[in-house]
Amino acid sequence: MVQVPLEERARRIRRTILRLAATPVGCHLGGSLSMVELLVVLLGRVMNVRPQEPRWEERDSLILSKGHAAAGLYAALAEFGFIDAEELVQRYNAEGSPYTGHVSAAVPGVEFPTGSLGHGVGLGVGMALGHRLRQRANRVFVICGDGEMGEGSNWEALQIAAQHKLSGLTVLVDRNGGQNDGPTESILSQAALVQRLSAFGLGTVEVDGHDLEALASALEAPAEGPRAIVANTKKGAGVPMLRGKGPHYATFNPEQLKRALASLGEVTP
Hints:
By secondary structure, the protein is an alpha/beta fold. The chain has a single domain, classed as Thiamin diphosphate (ThDP)-binding fold, Pyr/PP domains (Rossmann fold). The chain has 11 helices and 7 strands. 48% of the residues are buried. Its cofactor is thiamine diphosphate. Pfam families: Transketolase_N. This is Transketolase subunit A.
């Protein structure tokens, strides 16, 4: 089997996300695009998963706490064979579809439905602790948004993770600098995020969230307790016409989709 480079997988995922933005109700575009490299490294290199057996007992788990970025997770699951990409595009956010605008557990590869922010870390801590008690080697990876780190529930859960030295837990923060109401720093500053995570007892590193090798190195490093990776990213990353400016949510018309795809090197009629 020919191994597809992770860079190419990232481009494909972005194409699918753009197509989801052109569906009748659109999608949370900026934050879906910002986390693509995180998803690619996790699903394509780090995590122990079986796409054809998504409930495999020995699997590692991925929790998307920023559940509004469902389009990004679904597109990545399609790229790695959990679901069908064409079915996803055709049924995204349609009545009766499992591919809802916030993450649905009816989709293979999704552990929990998420959307209300501040829940994913607690779920991840509970799963990691459960694996510890059952003496299992399963690992848990949680992706949060930087705006979401204003939720106090995250910090309560992180204290428990540190207290129990849950080395099977990794929290990744998609630090794209924006949230629904505007720039994160003007709403509730996360300038000291790395220092706070470290002070709460997590082994914390800060990386370029679009650098696949930097992400892989951080994720594959040995850990003696819970880890946090603060991934500095850009909203709309990977699509030149959108990079750094989002938008948070978008519904593309055919011409906008054509321009966005063209900026990725895809020519459409």
